[in-house]
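so my prof wants the structure for this chain in the tokens format not the other one, which i didnt know existed until like an hour ago. anyway here's the sequence
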Amino acid sequence: MLSMPAFPEDHIGPAHPTRVNDYDSLAEGYDAENESGIANAHYERPAILALAGDVTGRRILDAGCGSGPLFAELRDRGAALTGIDLSPGMLEVARRRLGEEADLRVADLRAPLPFPDDAFDDVIASLVLHYLEDWAPTLSEFRRVLATGGRLIVSVDHPFAIHTMQRTAGQKTDYFATYNWTEEWTMGGRAVTMSFWNRPLHAMTSAFAAAGFRISAISEPQPDPAARELFPDEFRALSTSPSFLFFVLEAA
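here's what i got, hopefully its the right format
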């Protein structure tokens, strides 16, 4: 997911299920933005890597791996990676980046995962859970494939950032509700309607607890200082108003 642009008033509401979140169409353009844009390259990805720490020898599931930049970083740090994504187009880009030997698989996070119990030391869900209306089945599967004491590292849209952005745009949103909202993304000359689910912080933490996770850390990091000169306006905005919220959770 990228930084959240302003959107017109009529962009909040139910999305057509056959047309939304078409990452196959966006794959090339999204990858280019993800590779170098401030939201991913200088904010979200460095924060995930910092929370993961030393991953040498750890078995990691990159859940929603997209075009593979986080997979590549973790692999370079000595982890054993498996990546899954719903989009074959994104996995095609990832395979070009990572090589044919990379363990990449098409999988739907709303369905049972194709892995045995206790298969991983860490699951990393980078900017993916906010696409799902119901977190319970997905979190249950993450807990199942994690070894006891393993970690689930999550980044999601910051719920109050979404709520504030929508209120500023004149929407009468309810922070305490779980609701769907949509916006248009245009990348690589292609426009796609993207659909997300915003939920309050307490709903997130309750879902984690119900799935058998303990919260080790909640983080609202600053962007990488190196981005200050590259993206002065965006850097200033992210330094005073977070876009994403991060969790480190332990499999109890």
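also thought this was worth mentioning. Residues 116 and 145 are 6 Å apart (CA to CA).
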